[in-house]
Design brief:
This protein is of the alpha+beta class and 482 residues long. Among the domains are: 101 residues, no CATH class; 82 residues, Ribbon (left handed beta-beta-3-solenoid), CATH 2.10.270.10. The protein contains three helices and 34 strands. The strands form 17 sheets. It has a two-stranded antiparallel ribbon.
Length: 482
């Protein structure tokens, strides 16, 4: 019984040793497999060698497994370090590429001239709208040319539409996000976008026509009257600035080749016009103040001009107005006082009058006579029942005057005298034509003698033609020879 029990115990021990050997072999195979994965250069450890080495004891197998586990751990750590370094290097490289892409995707928004570099990639519809990613997969921001069109991608990468301010300019992007150029209609308002897309503002010439687009933050095309830099313009219904003569609101205006409204005195097509004050510009007709008269730097009167129904000033021309005649000089200014016109002299009223004068006029304490046509009369003129002698300017002559070889006496009233006339104590005799006589003159039964100076000889004895004659105090010749 005891022997049988001992035999059974030995059998159990053998069975246990066999199980332990199998377990050690399996563990060795597992470790060998792990070491092979961790280090392909470890040729001393193989699954086949571990499986066939049944002579290795359980303790040896355990030590070997422990040693191989430590080697595998070190190899895994080395491999992990290498993988980490490679991963870090790859991350650095990718970060560097991303930074380069980011730099390419930004621009200086303070620049007035913005570039739009061409970029290729992919559009993606994402939360908030469309974004664009370049070929490196980097989301783009800023202004770019994509498939030949310009797009603006905001700071969040979202494609922008409508009006956008970039730098100091405004741009318009359609519903598809592409930048617009040329004329743009927004409702009833028109805008103009340059070839670079920037919104026009202020005065702009488009296709040789001038337009006004308001302030830099406005841009809407304007029509009607607008003042720009102290100059006035009128923009028609098409928005283009008008030029030349234009009738606006019942008045005529003139705009130069730059569209600027002209004011004041202007010569247009050889004719003079008055286009009002600086803030007016309307063509004037009728009487207009065109200047001033100054004396000692003080204004003493206005200067007047007259403009016909066509607006042209009367220059070197006559005007009958209200029953009176006026004349305007070569500058269109109404003439006053005395003026020579076509070789004749005329007299006009003062600066505030200007009417042409006729008949007798007292000018500077001198009387002048002007015909019905206003021209000053000169030479001998019979006015009423009397004869007068008028000078170059029509002025009335008085006193003794030598005229055409004869001596005449014109009284204080200018009328020519005839007959006996005493002048400065001397006696003269003027015949029916007014000429003073000289030599012998018989009046009635009396004889008189007048010297070469036409003065009557008196109270003297005068030898004439070799004979002597006596004359009394009245100039009468006494009879008989002396």
């Amino acid at each position: 019984m005891l022997k049988e029990s001992q035999g059974n115990g030995m059998a159990k021990i053998k069975t246990l040793r066999h199980h332990l050997l199998v377990m050690a072999t399996c563990l060795a195979m597992m470790l060998a497999s792990t070491c092979f994965v961790a280090s392909a250069t470890d040729e001393d450890v193989s699954a086949n060698g571990a499986a066939n080495n049944e002579a290795i004891s359980t303790e040896e197998s355990t030590d070997a497994a422990s040693n191989q586990n430590e080697d595998a751990t070190e190899n895994r750590q080395d491999a992990s370090s290498a993988d980490s370094a490679a991963t870090a290097q790859a991350a650095d490289n990718k970060a560097t590429d991303r930074a380069a892409q980011a730099r390419a995707a930004t621009y200086d928004v303070s620049d007035d001239e913005l570039s739009a570099p061409a970029v290729s990639g992919t559009w993606k519809s994402e939360s908030g709208g469309w974004r664009f990613y370049n070929s490196a997969g980097v989301m783009q921001k800023g202004l770019f040319t994509i498939d030949g069109k310009k797009y603006y991608l905001g700071p969040d990468g979202i494609m922008k539409t409508g009006w956008q301010q970039i730098g100091s300019h405004y741009y318009y992007f359609g519903s598809d996000g592409s930048m617009r150029t040329g004329w743009l209609s927004a409702g009833s308002t028109w805008y103009y976008l340059h070839s670079d897309g920037s919104m026009a503002y202020g005065l702009e010439e488009v296709e040789k026509l001038l337009y006004f687009f308001g302030a830099s933050n406005d841009g809407a095309m304007k029509t009607g009257w607008h003042k720009v830099s102290d100059a006035y313009y009128y923009f028609g219904s098409s928005g283009a600035a008008v030029k030349g003569w234009q009738k606006i609101g019942g008045y005529w205006y003139y705009f130069d080749k730059m569209g600027v409204m002209l004011t004041g005195n202007q010569v247009l097509d050889g004719k003079s016009y008055y286009l009002g004050a600086a803030n007016d510009g309307a063509m004037k007709t009728g009487w207009q103040i065109v200047g001033a008269v100054y004396e000692s730097n003080k204004k003493i009167a206005d200067r007047w001009g007259y403009y016909g129904a066509d607006g042209a000033a009367l220059e070197n021309n006559w005007l009958k107005y209200g029953g009176y005649w006026y004349h305007f000089d070569e500058d269109g200014v109404m003439q006053t006082d005395v003026a020579e016109i076509d070789g004749k002299y005329y007299y006009f009223g003062t600066e505030n009058d200007g009417r042409m004068k006729t008949g007798w006029q007292k000018i500077d304490n001198t009387w002048a006579y002007l015909g019905a046509d206003g021209a000053a009369r000169t030479g001998w003129q019979k006015i009423g029942s009397y004869w007068y002698y008028l000078g170059e300017y029509g002025e009335m002559e008085t006193d003794l005057r030598n005229i055409d070889g004869g001596l005449y006496y014109l009284g204080g009233d200018g009328a020519m005298r005839t007959g006996w006339q005493q002048v400065s104590g001397d006696w003269y005799y003027f015949n029916a034509s007014g000429a003073a006589v000289s030599g012998w003159l018989q009046l009635g039964s009396y004889w008189y003698y007048f010297g070469e100076d036409h003065k009557m000889v008196k109270n003297t004895i005068k030898e004439l033609d070799g004979k002597k004659y006596a004359f009394n105090s009245d100039g009468v010749m006494l009879s008989g020879y002396l």
